Amino acid sequence: MSQSRTNGNESESTAVLAALGNKYSAEILCAAGTPKSAQTLSEDIEIPIATCYRRIEELVDAGLLTCEGRQLSTEGRRTNIYRRTLDEIEVNFSSEQPALSRKNRTEAKNRLQDQLHE
Asked: What segments bear the compositional bias annotation Basic and acidic residues (predicted)?
């Protein structure tokens, strides 16, 4: 995993904290360790699909979730598939602005998890 630290980037810190502060965001990130559609995430977490789409949009905008592509749903429609971009995040409040430290997911880890879940 690669690790990055964000110091003083108020807009990024604010976006990340706002996204994480919303109900169901953490559950979506936990469930999105492997690629999943919004419908699958909604069913797995047992939340309304409209709420799931709103949270997904917020998490994508904050850089915590990414669209990995599209696949056909069981109904034959093309749907976006999402996966989290990190495994850990730490927030340090000891300065004037929050500082984020995150452990991003590597492509190797993504491929390994995909093989384990096939």
From this structure: 104-118
- The stretch 2-12 carries a mean pLDDT of 55
Number of H-type helices and E-type strands within the chain: 5, 6
Q: What is the pTM of this model?
A: 0.77
Q: pLDDT at position 112, please?
A: 66
Q: What is the CATH number of the domain that holds 8?
A: 1.10.10.10
Residue in this structure with the two tokens 């709103």, named with its chain if needed: 54
Range of the domain at 22: 2-116
Q: What are phi and psi of 46, to 5 degrees?
A: 60, 55
HSE-up of 76 (CA within 13 Å, CB side)? 0
Q: How many domains does the chain have?
A: 1
Give the other-Cβ count within 10 Å of 36's Cβ: 20
Distance CA 37, CA 80 (A): 6
Residue 5, helix vs strand vs coil? strand
